[in-house]
Amino acid sequence: MHFELVDPLDHRELLEACLEVARERMGVCRSSRVLKTLKLHKKRLLVAARDVRGVAGFKLGFCERPGVFNSWLGAVAAAREGNGIGRRLMELQHEHLAALGYRLVRTGTRNQFRRMLILNLLSGFELVGVRHKKNGPHLQLEKRLTPGAKSPENNLVRS
Ligand SMILES: CC(C)(COP(=O)(O)OP(=O)(O)OC[C@H]1O[C@@H](n2cnc3c(N)ncnc32)[C@H](O)[C@@H]1OP(=O)(O)O)[C@@H](O)C(=O)NCCC(=O)NCCS
To answer: Among the atoms of ligand 1, which is closest to the Cα of residue 77?
Structure first.
């Protein structure tokens, strides 16, 4: 398994393969909508786990404002679940963001994505709010990053 940290707009095929995993796990996820959102943000980061069988999982997000990263979408293929891929994707994302000087990661999830909620809590996120939406409560989480983690290999989301 290898892990890639890239700008998703420069790696459209990889992004599309990741969105296939998102569709398998979370239902509708229109590429046009994702691209539109990504293009609204100057700094974006896709962390993807891939091997000979294809994309196993990913995390996708963007810089919301200086020092604050929104970890927007993420999933691990059902057949690959429970092998530490989700945890590793998150670790790599956080290490990279901390090394770039980000101080906060934000994310949101719902009760039905229980594994993600648990993984977020185990990874240091705190629940900071709940938004009531049509499809049920949307849980808002934040994690403060420790500055000066390992050096990034590229400058994709430098603030
Ligand atoms: C959430 C998700 C990314 C986790 O991926 P994963 O590769 O299975 O994660 P890991 O193997 O690194 O394990 C996550 C860890 O969280 C913890 N965990 C998860 N569910 C748990 C549960 N029900 N009870 C206790 N611990 C749990 C465990 O520590 C687990 O590690 P373990 O299974 O080795 O014990 C994956 O399950 C997924 O894509 N789910 C569906 C889509 C989704 O929820 N997306 C997010 C929408 S906001």
So the answer is: 39
